[in-house]
Q: What sequence folds into this?
């Protein structure tokens, strides 16, 4: 069934595009979703000297950005993609694990196909038109999308048609804090920047499986006993431990720690404490700590640089 869908372009005008709308899909069937691209309010408040995500992260040309950890990876991926799109960049968002199917406000086009060569060809043919395309391998019954392979990410990273690749390379089942499982995270070797995310709302909560992903492993890595409260020190250990959030990061990749949800009471204070302790543990590995509030404007509260 065909339908005409409005698509918002970067020049503030409506284009009409022909899209394929299917109501009942086989999980392995090719799916293309052209969706409405809505204009996002600017995230920089010049009067307050606020950072945009692009500025806070110090993004360079043609980055492959991998997101690991818990407490805001998907939100960060699509909000960063929106900033890049409005800056005139052509962006690909994807996952090497699983993500919830994005909404029409998150991506200009969703392409799902188990044939990765088909995905590549579609992307290269249509990236100039959509400017932001999300790729996935298959749709799952849980309304989630299974991701593409790290190898495809590496192939796409060499395509001059793409300005920026953003990859959700970890899962946390919605918890604010996690420790990786044996096979996690799934970071493509082509990653130039790896952003480790933790939700500061985990501080002060009792360490259990309800609020933490891999709680027993968190206890093992940080020394916090099960049932005791999570501390800023323990959050810093998770960010810096070899088996913690950045496990498996390529040696050549830059590392940035992102402490999200600092808008909550005491959030900024806790975020600063975590940032200070991160640099105390391994000051040469993480170049900066961002205190974020991804569901607010501006999305960045502070940036703490390594001295």
A:
């Amino acid at each position: 069934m065909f339908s005409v869908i409005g698509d918002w372009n970067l020049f503030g005008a409506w284009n009409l595009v022909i899209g394929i709308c299917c109501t009942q899909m086989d999980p392995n069937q090719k799916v293309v979703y052209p969706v409405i691209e809505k204009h996002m309010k600017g995230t920089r408040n010049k009067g307050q000297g606020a950072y945009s995500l692009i500025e806070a992260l110090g993004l360079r040309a043609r980055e492959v950005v991998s997101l690991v950890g818990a407490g805001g990876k998907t939100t960060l991926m699509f909000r960063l993609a929106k900033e890049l799109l409005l800056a005139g960049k052509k962006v690909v968002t994807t996952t090497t694990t699983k993500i919830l199917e994005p909404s029409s406000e998150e991506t200009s086009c969703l392409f799902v196909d188990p044939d990765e060569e088909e995905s590549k060809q579609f992307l290269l043919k249509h990236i100039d038109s959509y400017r932001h395309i999300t790729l996935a391998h298959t749709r799952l019954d849980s309304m989630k999308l299974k991701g593409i392979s790290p190898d495809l990410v590496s192939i796409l990273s060499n395509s001059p048609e793409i300005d920026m690749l953003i990859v959700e390379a970890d899962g946390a089942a919605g918890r604010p804090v996690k420790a990786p499982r044996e096979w996690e995270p799934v970071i493509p070797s082509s990653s130039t920047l790896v952003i480790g995310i933790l939700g500061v709302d985990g501080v002060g909560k009792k360490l259990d499986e309800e609020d933490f992903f891999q709680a027993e492993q968190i206890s093992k890595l940080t020394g916090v006993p099960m049932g005791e409260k999570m501390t800023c020190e323990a959050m810093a250990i998770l960010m810096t431990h070899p088996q913690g959030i950045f496990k498996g990061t390529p040696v050549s990749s830059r590392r940035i720690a992102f402490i999200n949800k600092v808008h909550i009471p005491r959030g900024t204070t806790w975020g600063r404490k975590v940032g200070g302790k991160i640099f105390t543990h391994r000051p040469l590995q993480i170049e900066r700590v961002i205190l974020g509030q991804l569901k607010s404007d501006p999305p960045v509260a502070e940036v703490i640089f390594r001295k």
Q: What stands out?
A: The chain has a mean pLDDT of 85. The two ends are 58 Å apart (CA to CA). The chain has one domain: 2-35+51-305.
